[in-house]
Amino acid sequence: MAAPADSFEFLRTGKKLRNRAVVAAMTNKQSNEDGSLSDEEINWLLRRADGGFGIVTTAASHVVREGKGWDGEMGVWGDHQLQGLTRLAKGIRERGAVSLGQIFHGGMRCPQGLTGVQPVSASVNPTSDSDTGETRALEDSEIEELVDAFAAAAARCEKAGFDGVEIHGAHGYLICQFLGLQTNRREDRWGGSLENRARFLLNIIERIRQVTSEDFLLGVRISPEYNNIGVMLEDSLDLVDMLVKSGIDYLHISCWDCFTPPTHYDDPRMLTEIFAERLANRLPMISCGAVWSTAQAQQVMDQGADLVAVARSAIGHADWASNLGDLDYDPQRPPFTTAHLESQGLSPKFVEYMRAWKGFIA
Ligand SMILES: Cc1cc2nc3c(=O)[nH]c(=O)nc-3n(C[C@H](O)[C@H](O)[C@H](O)COP(=O)(O)O)c2cc1C
User: Fold this and answer.
1) 141: CA distance to ligand 1 center in Å?
2) Per-residue pLDDT tens for 231-244?
3) Rounded to two decimals, what is the model's pTM?
């Protein structure tokens, strides 16, 4: 059985990781108004590459200007963003880690106050922002344009020197809104059956493959369950078979807590075990959620994950991954002091944002 400190190779591309530890995508609100990276955001990620992680993933980054969900969000939609992206990708590589850009569109969670336009979604849906009321349903041609925008963003990441991209299909954003039975009530080829609801995601994958090189990594992050918009576990398991056929390099499941069973599914096992069974080693799997100690990382690998992603542990401990050879490593958990977080490379702006995460800051 593999251990968290063991190396790993993505077979199709031959890209190698020094260990099984992944910095999960984390929004940190430090990007400039035009979506370009700030020095603070680059520094925070480079500290994690210095800290020994195998993969460093960027924050969720919008692929079109109107796909922005919040202030300070990273963007990958324009060439003015290339300079910062290039600095980040080069820095991560120089530090021995593999870099992934996480690409997304916020859909119904893009406030009009921020983008200046009515938000869009698969269907007419309520928005997160009470001023805006409802979304507009995307036209067929607009969906095709967005598929192209995702591909252009991936190509931009490759041009900047990233090793790959992770398509963010989780957490209720646009791709997830297409997958969700409640947010996607379309009657055309983009709605109805799972095959139709997954078409947006599968077309994005296909188009990215057409515009990036053979050795560019392509992964997909999903929420196994996102019940309040109708993403059900049964569907997510069937989606796994479609993703295997699509030719991606890995599947990333966002569990939030790897040590509790699913909520709307009659199976006492953990999500990672259930997905590992369905995958049957056809694709590498990253799992993520509530991992702090080496023992917990090992447990998630024993459940069937090939790689273990961490978010809050990586915020609290820049060098988390360097400790995975120590089987007793069990670092401090929240609440953290501001001084501690600043010592781990968080800017005051990022620390301020973390106050929104209940119990994270003392
Ligand atoms: C500050 C913060 C920002 C996050 N931003 C993103 C994001 O941009 N994209 C994403 O897929 N998940 C995001 N997440 C979710 C994490 O990637 C991860 O799935 C979740 O925090 C559970 O892992 P953890 O228990 O190791 O923190 C964020 C989490 C945190 C704490």
Assistant:
1) 32
2) 999 999 999 999 99
3) 0.98
